[in-house]
Amino acid sequence: MSLGPLMIDLKGVELDDEERAWLREPVVGGVILFTRNYENPTQISGLVTAIHEARSPPLLVAVDQEGGRVQRFREPFTALPPMRSLGHLYDEDAARALGAARAFGWLMAAELRAVNVDLSFAPVVDLDLGLAEVIGDRALHAEASVVGALAVEFAAGMHAAGMAAVAKHFPTHAGAVSDSHTDCATDSRNYNELWDDLDPYRRMIATGLPGVMVGHVSFPEVDPLPASLSSWWIRDELRARMGFGGAVFSDDVTMAGAAAGGTCSGRAVKALEAGCDMVLVCNAPAEIPAVIESLAGYVNPSSQIHLIRLRGRECETWDSLRSSAAWQEARQEVAHLTERPDLELEG
User: Fold this and answer.
1) Which residue is catalytic, options 126, 187, 251, 252?
2) 162 Rama class: left (phi>0) / alpha (psi -120 to 50) / beta
3) How far apart are CA 88 and CA 50, in angstroms?
């Protein structure tokens, strides 16, 4: 059985019978975890193992563990600062910030790999334009060159820990004031005006970026459809023009920004037709059976190649990781970011 194109979520801290049945469906290829699924490292490791054992080959298990406002697993996982802290450090000491970015990416990924999670959807590479409140301090910096440099190091740290990076939210959420979770988000800029926003992706693709998450922002001057449903953005721009050869995820298709796709099932189908390899359906368990039915029989051999490369590599156990010198050193480096005084965001 291959990895299907659908990533779903779970209701609680262990699998129930209905969820086990969903995971056995051929169209399901992954699970994304949230705070409601987490109690402690032992419990989450057991849940991830149960998910992996539900199918062969094992399903991908993912989480959003960016740091700051978006960190699903808390104590005793390291409390990670918002990613903007790296940008503030860069303005004072660029060399140290690049090292801290690598340590940040390694620490985040190493702790997740220690409980067998395959992926964290990170880093965020939206620029800090001061417009999108939903992004805010999740953005690394206002300047594209700085975002690109920090993101490349962050991804290198993740890779060293055995995890593939998934940059988001392609092509950008930075210029949309509305939150695509709750509203239709629009960016009125034309393609030329988006050049800087795309630069971090160009830099990361040049160093072998494994994954990209496409957002639900629409760019009417380019294509009226949200990027997640747009073959222009995914096939023409990301794949053909930018040369990206990794896995493409849609953001959660239950979000309001994807409403142009119609029903939840319709959105999933349209995202795959546009070029996504995997679509996320989150926080809507009642929709999952219909989405599974709508995708029955779907097979994309190239997607299989893209997705299988994202599986987490060999890792340390939770206890051995936390007793290692590498973990202690990375914790100290990241702690320096959390100890810094709050600075006013630019832009």
Assistant:
1) 251
2) left
3) 40
DSSP summary character for residue 194: G
319 three-state secondary structure: helix
The 10s digit of each residue's pLDDT in 266-298 is 999 999 999 999 999 999 999 999 999 999 989
User: Catalytic pick from 179, 181, 196, 336?
Assistant: 181
For residue 39, what is the domain's CATH number? 3.20.20.300
Q: Taking the CA of residue 213 as centre, how many other CA atoms within 13 Å lie in the half-sphere pointing to its CB?
A: 26
In a domain, 345, yes or no: no
Is 181 a residue of the active site?
yes
Model pTM above 0.90: yes
User: Which amino acid is residue 144, in one-letter code?
Assistant: A
Residue 346 inside a domain? The answer is: no
Instruction: Encode pLDDT of 180-237 as tens digits.
Output: 665 678 999 999 999 999 999 999 999 999 999 999 999 999 999 999 999 999 999 9
Q: How many domains does the chain have?
A: 1
- Two structure tokens written together for 314: 């060999």
Q: Are strands 60-63 and 28-33 parallel, antiparallel or unpaired?
A: parallel
